[in-house]
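Researcher: We plan to redesign the surface later, but first we want a full-length starting point. Tokens attached.
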């Protein structure tokens, strides 16, 4: 299970540069991290994970298959998008299909790159986009509520639940807040998700800074960090220009370049990791001589459901999961050593899978 992140932003903030860097990096890493273009503005990229390489080396795996992450370059978001300005309606629809929003904010000064509003103010830019999404949600809610009137009068339980949730969302939106602030009970969670409101999507603010500010950020990114913290959202500091340059280098050259810039890792790796944290995702592994493979699940996933990510039959016929913690697998030099050291566990249906677990599922066909 991968996840889909929509990249949004006003014109001239570096959004396309960032997306291009993602696609080029993926193409350059084709051996381990294959990239494919689903549409001109959609990129599917492998998620880098050093643990996967370590496991493959120990097991002598012939193939390494990372888990996937899809980026959608969503253009056309300008002031008035909710009313169809630019390509507003089309791309607002694209956002509905994503799990999260990566909002690229201009946090750099450059007289050669014109800002759509003639100034650099990332917090105001964020508010502009958020306002458009909120206005689009309000319009969507009002239309849906009109369509529910007859069913609600007839006592349709689903319609009554939908109307209640839509009213809750409308109340906060009209108060100038995104729908994600609504507290939803467990029994309403599924129906709430089905509403597909734009402002329920978690937001990752991507602060695009100048090359010299990539390591420490600047005053603009500091303001974004403060805003993100107050909202319960996340932020990451990246120089899209650096990422594009790195994407065109060989691996050893890229590492040297990053070191010279005072960076420990590529910003895209930080962006992916921040996206995982934002969506409460984690990774487990299956390892053998044929392949070492990473699988993405949500935190709190039980063993049968984790098995179902591989194939539905694994979940339906689940018996048990032979499980080794990642560090135990490494310390014991593989599966056999882990067995001999008593580090392999047989886990049942109630086991909560942990990040880094190396698993082998037994199931009835």
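Model: Full-length starting sequence:
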């Amino acid at each position: 299970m991968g996840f889909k992140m929509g990249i949004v932003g006003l014109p001239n903030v570096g959004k396309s540069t960032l997306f291009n860097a993602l696609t080029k990096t993926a193409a350059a890493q084709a051996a381990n991290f294959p990239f494919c273009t689903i549409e001109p503005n959609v990129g599917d990229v492998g998620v880098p994970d050093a643990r996967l390489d370590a496991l493959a080396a120990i097991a002598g795996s012939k193939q390494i298959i990372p888990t996937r992450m899809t980026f959608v370059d969503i253009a056309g978001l300008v002031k008035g998008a909710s009313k169809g300005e630019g390509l507003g309606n089309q791309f607002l629809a694209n956002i509905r299909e994503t799990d999260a929003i990566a909002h690229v904010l201009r946090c750099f000064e450059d007289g050669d790159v014109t800002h759509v509003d003639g100034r650099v103010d990332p917090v105001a830019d964020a508010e502009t986009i958020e306002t458009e999404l909120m206005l689009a949600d309000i319009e969507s809610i009002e239309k849906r509520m009109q369509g529910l009137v007859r069913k609600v009068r007839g006592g349709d339980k689903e319609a009554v639940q939908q109307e209640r949730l839509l009213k809750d969302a409308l109340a906060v939106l009209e108060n100038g807040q995104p729908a994600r602030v609504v507290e939803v009970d467990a029994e309403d969670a599924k129906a709430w998700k089905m509403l597909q409101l734009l402002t329920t999507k978690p937001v990752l603010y991507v602060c695009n800074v100048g090359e010299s500010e990539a390591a420490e950020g600047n005053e603009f990114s500091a303001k974004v960090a403060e805003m993100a913290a107050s909202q319960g959202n996340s932020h990451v500091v990246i120089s899209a220009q650096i990422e594009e340059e790195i994407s065109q280098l060989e691996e050893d050259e890229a590492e040297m370049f990053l070191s010279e810039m005072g960076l420990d890792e590529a910003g895209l790796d930080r962006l992916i990791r921040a996206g995982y944290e934002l969506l409460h995702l984690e990774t487990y592994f299956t390892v053998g001589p044929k392949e070492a493979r990473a699988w993405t699940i949500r935190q709190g996933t039980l063993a049968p459901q984790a098995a179902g990510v591989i194939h539905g039959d694994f979940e339906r016929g689940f018996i048990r999961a032979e499980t080794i913690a990642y560090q135990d697998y490494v310390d014991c030099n593989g599966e056999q050593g882990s067995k001999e050291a008593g580090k392999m566990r047989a886990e049942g249906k109630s086991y909560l899978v942990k990040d880094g677990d190396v698993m082998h599922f037994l199931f009835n066909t």
